[in-house]
Amino acid sequence: MTAVRTEHPTVDERRARGRQARRDTPLAALADLTESDRDPISLLELQAKSRVQDLVPIRYGRMSASRFSFFRGAALVMTDDLSRSPDSGLNSQLCGDAHLSNFGIYATPERKLAFDINDFDETYPGPFEWDVKRLAASLAIAAKDNGYSGKERKKIVRGCAAEYRETLIAQAGLGNLAVWYAHIAPEDGLEELRVDLKKRMLERTQATLDKARRRDSAQAAGKFTEIVDGRRRFISDPPLIVPAEELFAGTDLTQIEELLRQRVRSYRSTLQWDRRVLLESFEMTHIARKVVGVGSVGTRAWMILMKGVDDDDPLILQVKEAQPSVLSAYVDGPTFSNEGERVVNGQRLMQATSDIFLGWERGPGLDEDEHDFYIRQLRDGKGSAVIETMKPEGMELYGRLCARVLAYAHARSSDRIAIAEYLGDGTEFDFAIGEFAAAYAKRNARDHAALLTAIDDGRVSAERGV
Description:
Blueprint: H1 11-24, H2 40-48, H3 56-63, H4 67-73, H5 75-82, E1 91-94, E2 103-107, E3 113-117, E4 124-127, H6 128-145, H7 150-172, H8 176-181, H9 186-193, H10 199-214, H11 217-224, E5 225-228, E6 231-234, E7 241-243, H12 244-247, H13 253-268, H14 273-280, E8 283-290, E9 301-307, E10 314-321, H15 339-350, E11 359-364, E12 370-377, H16 392-413, H17 416-423, H18 428-456
Antiparallel strand pairs: 1-4, 2-3, 5-6, 7-8, 8-9, 9-10, 10-12, 11-12
Pfam families: DUF2252
InterPro entries: DUF2252
Region (Disordered): 1-29
């Protein structure tokens, strides 16, 4: 087999590429939101066809709760819109769903806390600004839902865009290894922002960090399991948590449990060698189906309870279905033999450091069709901000932090020098993204209203409050 030579253009050539991209698609063009006659409900219905049908009404119910809740579940709808608008032509590995609730705190393998993107179901290569636009639009929508003034919303969104631009430009001036290791430690971020944070906000942020440190498999076991006849088992809380013996009622579980053990062994082969050894020291003891998220509701998701030395030494793994990225139908990009591998590889590329048990697997579902999955710890120091209680200054700071780690992630996987040249030192990018976000907030409000109408008319069924 002939090796393909990797091209290594000079810095000047990379800058020239950025300048050409700016001539082809001026920064002002990024403000454009092309009109479209697409029906958001039809797109959501199309997406729902591959999901567990009895869970789809929960998804619609959660999306109907607010304009921001709708936005969280409508990554496909926004991708369809983005595909119709001008783009820079400068690609990066994208999160694909970079709204502000998909950033948060988690524990690194060294047991330190990091702040980063934490959802990669839609990760795929595409125009770098698509992620920025989704983040900026999420801020505009959440700020509107929180009742902020127009002036406050503009300041929040432009601050996010400016933070992204300035961070990306700074990363372009660094060496490859320095870019690769760039990350935000929450404690460091607190120190940096301490002057800007009011005392009450500082205390609330510190409480979030303290809570995240306590969130691990032992804490998850305390919440999701109970001791039955001397053995730890998942609780039953249908339809959100359904143990296997209830889901497969009337069926001999022996064969199912053996099949699941085989699939755990198959997943184990995707881990780093030392982590395979660690996983082998745990025994699978129980499994349950779990409903997760907003946009993810209806995808197949499971919890696996693993026992270490005894029932007081648990490990809980989350097994989540990976369907094709919503981006893959709209941009040219790679194909994958397993969508779980796509998610894992994208996460490892974009995150500064990832869960030690992150891996992938494939196997038949209840419908006997093959499905792709990725696996990780259910909880490992995870924590997130409560968007609904944020004050304007808090959301501005949070938006800046999200933008910074997004720039770190893009710098690792793109031609950061070309993108930095495209962005430039001025504020034109910030204003263009601000205009786009404001326009998209209005479109999202119409789409949310369309969902409410579809529910009222009986076009779709929604189960609210679940």
